[in-house]
TrEMBL record:
Belongs to the LysR transcriptional regulatory family. The keyword Ligase does not apply. Keywords: DNA-binding, Transcription, Transcription regulation. SUPFAM superfamilies: Winged helix' DNA-binding domain. This is LysR family transcriptional regulator. PANTHER family: HCA OPERON TRANSCRIPTIONAL ACTIVATOR HCAR, TRANSCRIPTIONAL DUAL REGULATOR HCAR-RELATED. It comes from Blautia obeum.
Amino acid sequence: MTVQQLKYIVTVAETGSITEAAKQLFISQPSLSNAVKEIEKEIGIAIFLRSHAGITLTKEGMEFLGYARQVIQQMELLEDRYVAYKIGIIYDTPLSDMMIDRKVVNDNTDLCDWKFSDILYC
């Protein structure tokens, strides 16, 4: 199971529709449907109940969704924390000269005069 697959499950749950989720994820509906079925098969539970009215979470699916959101959030925290280090190895330019979301560096610190290489030594 991958983080991308977890994002698929979360999007389907939030939209209540595989078709709508596929549009938001920019993938085909059959591909998304197959990915969801693969995850369900891999973990051995039905995450969704499918009907003509749409798709809803099972009790087990609600629990799974909570864990999936936690994993995605933790992955985003890791990316936020370490992407500045990765970029710092490549570039040696003032942050103020780069088009970068300040959140990547640290919303609570003024680093505009720092260089990425300086971040490596924090």
